[in-house]
Write a structure and sequence with these properties.
Blueprint: H1 8-12, H2 22-47, H3 55-83
């Protein structure tokens, strides 16, 4: 007879000490505009995967790319402002 034994790593993988810290959650919250802008850019690219991009698709990709870049610049400037410098 074979006994079923749990693997310790699988059992403790969701233990309380494995939860994100408040600092990590704050970092995720600060980066959320960048994440969402990247998702929009990926969506714009995904739409064009199975067809030739139209002029409207090209505009959508350019706008999404500009928003993603602006979100990154904003994040860097906020981080530099907290550090006392400017980017």
């Amino acid at each position: 007879m074979n006994h079923i034994v749990t693997v310790q790593d699988a059992v403790t993988a969701f233990a309380d000490f494995m939860e994100p810290t408040d600092a990590e959650l704050d970092a995720i919250e600060r980066e959320m505009p960048v994440i969402l802008a990247d998702v929009d850019l990926l969506d714009a690219h995904i739409v064009t995967l199975d067809r030739t991009p139209t002029e409207v698709d090209d505009r959508r990709i350019r706008r999404a790319r500009r928003r993603a870049l602006a979100a990154r610049v904003s994040l860097v400037n906020r981080a530099a402002g907290r550090a006392g410098g400017a980017a």
